[in-house]
């Protein structure tokens, strides 16, 4: 059973929406509480791709196991060589190294796009994501305490960053 990593299309929107919807409804991995939909995710994929950003999926036997993407960080032109990424796998696909594989493909794309920094904004509740980011060479740049709220409690946001060429540029 081969895993294929490929660019997403509109047909992947239902699978991506299902993965994201469960994270929204049940977890503090995302600070979002407003529900998503297939249409919402189809528009997100189209918007990312129209702006030249990747949306990648991991697929096995025709099933989408997860997705990863990056997009603008804070939106101002001074940040144009920095991107913020997102990644999520379906529950059954987690803990098998697939997240790391998808991230490695995303990082390779960021390098070939000439980008300088990737930023991951993680809930401090997210032990698996923290481990994966550390294993990929990301470092914790800072924690913003109590910047979010969900399920009636405060959430802390951790900013993890990867210098894509391994060093600060002059
Ligand atoms: C976070 C996520 C992408 C990681 O992908 P994954 O394929 O499950 O992780 P991997 O199998 O590549 O493992 C990466 C590391 O995390 C560890 N890990 C995996 N699941 C874990 C868990 N539930 N708790 C603690 N550590 C965990 C692994 O042991 C591994 O650590 P190691 O390198 O020290 O051995 C995936 O679990 C996921 O989609 N989670 C839900 C969505 C999410 O959290 N997205 C990230 C938002 S910032």
Automatic annotation (TrEMBL):
Domain N-acetyltransferase stretches: 3-160
Molecular-function GO terms, alphabetical: acyltransferase activity, transferring groups other than amino-acyl groups
Keywords: Acyltransferase, Transferase
Keyword Thylakoid part of the UniProt annotation: no
PROSITE patterns: GNAT
Keyword hit for Acyltransferase: yes
CDD domains: NAT_SF (cd04301)
Name assigned to this protein: N-acetyltransferase
Species assigned in the record: Paracoccus suum
């Amino acid at each position: 059973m081969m895993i294929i990593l490929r660019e997403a299309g509109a047909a992947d929107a239902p699978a991506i929406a299902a993965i994201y919807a469960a994270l929204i409804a049940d977890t503090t991995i995302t600070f979002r509480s407003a529900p998503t939909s297939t249409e919402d995710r189809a528009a997100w994929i189209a918007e990312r791709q129209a702006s030249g950003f990747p949306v990648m999926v991991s697929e096995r036997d025709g099933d989408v196991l997860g997705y990863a993407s990056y997009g603008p960080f804070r939106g101002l032109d001074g940040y144009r060589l920095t991107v913020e990424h997102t990644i999520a796998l379906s529950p059954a696909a987690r803990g098998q190294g697939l997240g790391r594989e998808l991230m490695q493909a995303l990082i390779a794309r960021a390098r070939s796009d000439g980008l300088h920094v990737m930023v991951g904004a993680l809930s401090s509740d997210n032990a698996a994501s923290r481990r994966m980011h550390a294993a990929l060479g990301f470092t914790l740049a800072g924690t913003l305490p109590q910047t979010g709220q969900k399920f009636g409690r405060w959430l802390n946001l951790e900013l993890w960053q990867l210098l894509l060429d391994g060093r600060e540029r002059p």
